[in-house]
Amino acid sequence: MKIKRQKQAKKTISFYKFNFNFRQPFQILMDGTFCQAALKNKIQIKEQMPKYLMGEIQLCTTNCALKELETLGKQLYGAKLILQRFQVRKCPHLKSPVPASECLLSMLGETNPHHYFIATQDRAVTAGLKKIPGVPLLYIILNTIVLDKPSQESLDHVQAVQLGELVSPAQQQSIRSLKEEQGIPLKDGERRGKKRKRKQSNPNPLSCLKKKKKGVPTPPLKKTEPGEKKKRSRHKKRKTVEGDNTTAPAVSL
C-alpha cells in the first residue's frame, strides 16, 4: 500500500510540474486543522513530508491561521506550537484577521501564481480550492499524509491548453521573460516600447520673413499711330581716361 501511494504521489507531482510549472522547494501552506490531525496521529510533518513528496519543501502558514488558533483556546494549543515553527507568509488581512479558510483561499487567487500546496482538513477550504486550477491538496487519513488527485478544474484547464484555447503557466512565464528581454511592457493593451516625445524645435526661419509686396505691373508700351514719325535715338561717344572711344547711352529727342 505504501509503494502504491508513493507511485500515485509521484504521478500527481509530475502532473503539476509539467502543466503548472511547480518546482522545488515545494511550498506547503497549511492551517491549524492539519497540524491538529498530525499531532493526533503522531505524524512528524518536517520528517515525513519531504519523503512523501520526494523533494525539498518549505512549510509555511499565515497570520490569520495563527490568530484563529489563539482564539480557540487550550484545546488547540499543541497545534499552535507546531504551526508557530513554520514561516509566516504575508496576507492582506494583517490589520483585520479573517478565518483561516478564507485567508488560505485568498492566498491562491484565481490561478495560484506562487504554486502553493495546501495542507488542510477543512472541508470549506477543500471545496473552494477545487474550483481553482493548479492547486495540489494534502490531507491526513488513516495515520498517513495523502496527496489528492488533480481536481476536475485542473484537468479541464490542461485540456483547454492542449487544444490551444488557453496559455499554460509555463508558456506565460516564457512570454514574460521574452518581453522583459526585449523591453516590451507586460501590461495588456499597452503599446510596445515607450512613446517617443517630440523635441521642441525652433520655427522655420523662412516662415518668419515678412511677405514681400507684389510689384506694380509695368505699363504697356505706347503704339505709334499711323502717319506719326518714329523717334530716333542718337548715340554719343564719350572719351575714357585712356582716350578710348565708348558708345554713349542713347538720348531720345
From TrEMBL:
Sequence ranges of Basic residues compositional bias: 229-239
Ranges where the record places region Disordered: 174-253
Family matches, as Pfam families: Fcf1, UTP23_sensor
Biased composition (Basic and acidic residues): 177-191
Compositional bias ranges of the Polar residues kind: 243-253
Family membership noted in the UniProt record: Belongs to the UTP23/FCF1 family. UTP23 subfamily.
Role, per record: Involved in rRNA-processing and ribosome biogenesis.
Protein name as catalogued: rRNA-processing protein UTP23 homolog
Native organism taxonomy: Eukaryota, Metazoa, Chordata, Craniata, Vertebrata
